From TrEMBL, chain A:
Name of the protein in its database record: ATP synthase subunit c
Recorded topology in the membrane: Multi-pass membrane protein
Species, as recorded: Cohnella endophytica
Name of the encoding gene: atpE
Compartments it resides in: Cell membrane; Membrane
PROSITE patterns assigned: ATPASE_C (PS00605)
Lineage, uppermost ranks: Bacteria, Bacillati, Bacillota, Bacilli, Bacillales
Coiled-coil region(s): none
UniProtKB/TrEMBL annotation, chain B:
Topology in the lipid bilayer: Multi-pass membrane protein
InterPro entries: ATP_synth_I (IPR005598)
Protein name, as recorded: ATP synthase subunit I
Statement: the UniProt record of this protein carries the keyword Aminoacyl-tRNA synthetase: no
Keywords, ordered alphabetically: Cell membrane, Membrane, Transmembrane, Transmembrane helix
Entry-linked Pfam families: ATP-synt_I (PF03899)
Subcellular location per the Swiss-Prot or TrEMBL entry: Cell membrane
Amino acid sequence: MDLNTYGYVAAGIVFGLGALGAGIGNGLIFSKTVEGISRQPELRGTLTSTAFIGVGLVEAMPIISLVLAFMWAK
Amino acid sequence: MNVDLPAMLRRLTRITFFFLSIGCIGFAVWPDYKPYFGGFMIGVIGGLIGSFHLAWKVSRIGDLAAAGRKSRSGLGFLSRAAIGVLAALVSVEGLHFNLAATAAGILALPLVTLLLGLLSSRRLRERQSADERGEK
């Protein structure tokens, strides 16, 4: 394998691991949010804004890793 | 974190315009750093569009959960990732700005969201403790 191929493999690993972590994190956040809303629907606003903050942070890393992977693998 | 989603989006939009104004000033005043300021501005705009998309998805899932219905759609991560890649491509390939500055711009708004959430949480706690003391 030449150096470019290693670059593609590295980009795939970077994005794959980032997306794996984000998937687990988003699943945990939204399962608890939906559980909380179904228990207490009057807290919907608070719970959705908390979920928004959490998901925004969780998803920032894989998006950055995808951007960097695309740019470095080219 | 007792902040409504629309109020948080309004604050995010205001802070985005603040970042954009700083970027415009830097773009005009320091021509040597144009790639950095330009990349940051493009990244911030991409981050704001992603935040609006995420807020729409989160509120829709909240509505469905409150109504007790199941949703078959996802959270739209791929759409937001595509927005990030598009911002980076426009910035680096189209306008020849700096990639690291663009990535920093994409990451800036989630960090601002976290700070806003922490601040509103602290304010809420202070208000509740004042209520418990009977001051309000």
